[in-house]
């Protein structure tokens, strides 16, 4: 395989490029990334980037080692798999022998208003922080990790924040116990939580109006929508690769023999229906598998991913390995839930979590898999 094109300069694109080199690819590579920046930590955008202080700090990632030609601030607008050619935003063509699709996703939004903020890119975070420092009243739509992290940052910056979410925030992502703890801490720190779905959002009289499903209207200076993301597949629409609008790859992350996909853009079909896993560590693992599959085909290993997720909000750090625990009480392996500092283990579901406790990730993974608890 001579020339490889990598579409997307996020963590999946970066990891795929570095892995291709590590596995011995000596041909040329071109990385095309719509953002003008070098790859940065996207999870940091809703955490440290919104912390009080002048600077927007997202830390640094290790430099790329792939030595590819990088086209930053450029987008791919089309793909012809039969001719093995991708189209750039100026209409020029980029031929490839192998293609890695890693274009991630975009934030969902309700309106085109510039008072409705989303947070997907470094530029989004800069714009949001630029607004939050003036302490507007804020309605956050969505009580998943992103919404709760943004709410935590906004409260920390002195804003009056209302978060709208059906049910208990974070419960879908962490289960009822940990979701309940984070929500309780958020309430103690001044977050107002409204248990509802949103039916509409509009700009009115220089502010924003959020209409709930029961007709109630919430008025605030700005809205932050953190209600999910949409895979960035618009450039693939005429490629013939999308199935019901979805880019689906096999467990080796292959879409065709010469095209692999990784990260938030990708649905992987392990046999039980295609599923996306839009988290940082999944993007890294998929990119490694995808790079190997592009070079080694059937000889490459399939994806074997142990779910790992973390969040920082309301002064708490939470790390979780394994599936979301529902229903059962955990074993408290260390610390105490009352002190909100504990290592927890759900042997039935193969899950372990560290709440405000330092614990190396490999140890957390090991604990999650154990049937007898010891750390
Ligand atoms: C604010 C925020 C906080 C998060 N926090 C966490 C967390 O705490 N833990 C966790 O596990 N996960 C978290 N995530 C999710 C995690 O960041 C993503 O799963 C991960 O970044 C996905 O990487 P990716 O490379 O697939 O996509 P992305 O990081 O989205 O990178 C894709 C890149 O492709 C570019 N692109 C798109 N279309 C084109 C095109 N047509 N041509 C060229 N380039 C294109 C995009 O501009 C983008 O730079 C968070 C996400 C966000 C937005």
TrEMBL record:
This protein's cofactor list reads: FAD
Query: Entry's InterPro entries?
Result: FAD-oxidoreductase/Apoptosis, FAD/NAD-bd_sf, FAD/NAD-binding_dom, FAD/NAD-linked_Rdtase_dimer_sf
Single annotated GO MF? oxidoreductase activity, acting on NAD(P)H
Q: Domain FAD/NAD(P)-binding, which positions?
A: 3-287
Give the UniProt keywords, A-Z: FAD, Flavoprotein, Oxidoreductase
SUPFAM superfamilies the record matches = FAD/NAD(P)-binding domain, FAD/NAD-linked reductases, dimerisation (C-terminal) domain
Domain of life of the organism encoding this protein: Bacteria
GO cellular component terms listed in the entry, alphabetical order: cytoplasm
- Entry protein name: NAD(P)/FAD-dependent oxidoreductase
């Amino acid at each position: 395989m001579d020339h490889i094109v990598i579409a997307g300069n996020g963590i999946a694109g970066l990891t795929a490029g570095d892995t291709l080199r590590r596995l011995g690819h000596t041909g040329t590579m071109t990385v095309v990334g719509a953002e003008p920046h070098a790859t940065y930590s996207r999870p940091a955008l809703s955490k440290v980037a919104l912390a009080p202080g002048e600077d927007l700090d997202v830390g640094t990632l290790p430099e790329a080692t792939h030595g590819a030609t990088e086209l930053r601030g450029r987008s791919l607008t089309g793909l012809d798999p039969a001719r093995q050619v991708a189209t750039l935003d100026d209409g020029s063509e980029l031929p490839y022998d192998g293609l890695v699709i890693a274009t991630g996703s975009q934030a969902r939004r309700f309106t085109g208003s510039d008072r409705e903020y989303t947070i997907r890119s470094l530029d989004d975070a800069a714009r949001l922080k630029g607004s939050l420092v003036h302490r507007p009243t804020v309605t956050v739509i969505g009580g998943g990790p992103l919404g709760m992290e943004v709410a935590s940052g906004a409260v920390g910056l002195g804003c009056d924040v209302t978060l709208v979410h059906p049910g208990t925030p974070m419960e879908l992502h962490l289960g009822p116990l940990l979701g309940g703890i984070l929500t309780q801490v958020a309430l103690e720190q001044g977050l107002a939580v409204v248990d509802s779905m949103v039916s509409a959002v509009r700009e009115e009289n220089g502010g924003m109006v959020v209409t709930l499903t029961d007709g109630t209207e919430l008025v605030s200076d700005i809205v932050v929508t953190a209600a999910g993301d949409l895979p960035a597949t618009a450039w693939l629409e005429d490629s013939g690769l999308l199935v019901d609008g979805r880019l689906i790859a096999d467990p080796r992350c292959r879409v065709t023999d010469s095209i692999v996909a990784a990260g938030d853009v990708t649905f992987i079909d392990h046999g039980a229906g295609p599923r996306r896993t839009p988290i940082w560590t999944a993007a890294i693992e998929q990119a490694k598998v995808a790079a190997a599959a592009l070079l080694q085909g059937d000889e490459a290993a399939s994806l074997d991913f142990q779910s790992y997720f973390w969040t920082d909000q309301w002064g708490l750090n939470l790390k979780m390995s394994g599936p979301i625990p529902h229903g059962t009480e955990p074993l408290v392996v260390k610390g105490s839930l009352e002190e909100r500092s504990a290592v927890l283990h759900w042997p039935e579901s193969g899950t372990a979590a560290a709440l405000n406790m330092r614990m190396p990730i490999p140890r957390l993974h090991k604990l999650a898999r154990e049937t007898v608890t010891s750390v």
